[in-house]
Amino acid sequence: MAEYQRICLVHYHEIGLKGHNRSKFEMRLLKNLEAHLCAYPVVTIHRISGRLCVFLKEGTTHDTMVECADAIRSIPGTARVSCGFKCERDLDQMTEAGILAMGESGAFASFKVHARRNHTDFPVNSMEINQIVGGRLSEAYPQVKVQMKDPDLTVGIEVVQNAAYVYARSIPGIGGLPVGSSGTVMSLLSSGIDSPVALWRIARRGAVCIGVHFSGRPQTSDASEFLVDDIAHVLEKTGCIARVYVVPFGDYQREIALSAPPELRVILYRRLMFRVAERIAFYEHAKAIVTGESLGQVASQTLDNIRATNDAVSLPVFRPLIGSDKLEIIAQSQQLGTFPISSQDAPDCCTLFMPRNPETHANLTAVREAEAAFPIDQWVEELACAAEPHDYACPAYKPRKKSLHDLMTENDGD
Ligand code: ATP
Ligand code: MG
Questions:
Q1: Is 226 a known ligand-binding residue?
Q2: Closest atom of ligand 1 relative to the 228 alpha carbon
Q3: How do residues 179-214 score in pLDDT, each as one tens digit?
Q4: Which atom of ligand 1 is nearest to the CA of 197?
Q5: Superfamily assignment of 184-412 in CATH?
Q6: Does an H or E element contain 13, and which?
Q7: Residue nearest to atom 10 of ligand 1 (CA)
């Protein structure tokens, strides 16, 4: 039997819906895949009529192909990945490749062939391919039943302009849109369970995410910063995070804690966090703020308090977990791989200077009045200027030439 080149075929239904933007979206997914598959024996990745095809090097083993498909499935924008072979537009070759693909598919009791022909210059239509190749595969696997409805295995055949692709193993991807197709957001990232999940959900909708972490430093250790770095490395594997700004926040919290009404402290901390995130967002051309809040989960997440924090900024604030229960969030955090890191305890600004009885129904006027006692605008500038950027691999992100710190210090004295 001939040797056929191994391929992974990437299906992406949502991108197909984007009309004239389609090719932009396809190119974004292609670039993201190229960057993330650099450790695999990939020759090239091409667009082939409504799919991306990852061509693997000669001699690539079945196991490596499966590992490559597993890496592809977690890249946002991937609806499904199929593993198989490239062959010529020839029914004998399609049959041979089909036999090989079926042989690598484990146990199955029934199958069907599903062919797609994108060019009518191939004289045999899809129905005929199904019948002819299906008949021959059935002869090769006489113990297996041909079944049109819900078969255990579907052998896919895609006939395009100058080749055919045949596969049997097909796994669902995480779906969504390629990172970089929906703009940039600032994501408030603690070392807790929720915010990494929130970030990932927005990244899966195509946003490049830039994290901001408020550390209790110098009033606490920098332990939370290490956890956030570990979390960012997990998110980096799927290209979801471009950068994290670490903001030493402890001294400013202390100032608030010394003189603000104790019950309003948390809201004042949070308003300051939002404002600093918004300041960095302007620099990064980010158009929204993301948090991991879930309605009513803790005192700061009541409707009144959410409203009182939103009031501090003009950018839209997205809360992808607002309607999720903690157990659902934990399950997703486990799938993502951030849970073991997030469950470690580290003091950050959230554990610092906490009041005994935080307000659960903040009055906006009272909050604004309490805040007016502090030089907030000056603090926002100082904190944004002190923010330390840490970079992660995100092929869709292009950092600005000048750092925020340099830009801000250059303007001093203007
Ligand atoms: P998480 O598990 O994400 O820490 P949480 O349940 O502990 O959330 P809060 O402490 O009220 O809830 O935080 C709500 C949201 O505010 C977080 O999801 C995150 O987006 C943001 N946030 C909280 N603490 C920090 C921090 N130290 N740095 C950056 N963002 C933070
Ligand atoms: Mg937290």
A1: no
A2: 28
A3: 999 999 999 999 999 999 999 999 999 999 999 999
A4: 3
A5: HUPs (3.40.50.620)
A6: helix 13-16
A7: 350
The verdict on the CB of residue 297 being under 6 Å from ligand 1 is: yes
Please answer whether residues 137 and 166 qualify as being in contact, where contact means their C-beta atoms are separated by less than 8 angstroms: no
Ligand 1 centre distance from Cα of residue 288 (Å) = 16
What digits encode the pLDDT tens for the residues 105-140? 999 999 999 999 987 889 999 999 999 999 999 999
**Annotated domain spans of the chain:** 5-172, 184-412
pLDDT band, very low/low/confident/very high, at 18 (cuts 50, 70, 90): low
Please provide residue 145's backbone torsions phi and psi, each rounded to the nearest 5 degrees.
Answer: -85, 145
5-172 and 184-412 have identical folds: no
CATH class of 5-172: alpha beta
Ligand 1 pocket: which of 186, 194, 215, 235 to mutate (most atoms within 8 A of CB): 194
Mean pLDDT, rounded, of the chain: 93
Measured from the alpha carbon of residue 318, the closest ligand is 1
Closest Cα to residue 23, out of 55, 54, 50, 43? 50
36 has binding-site annotation: no
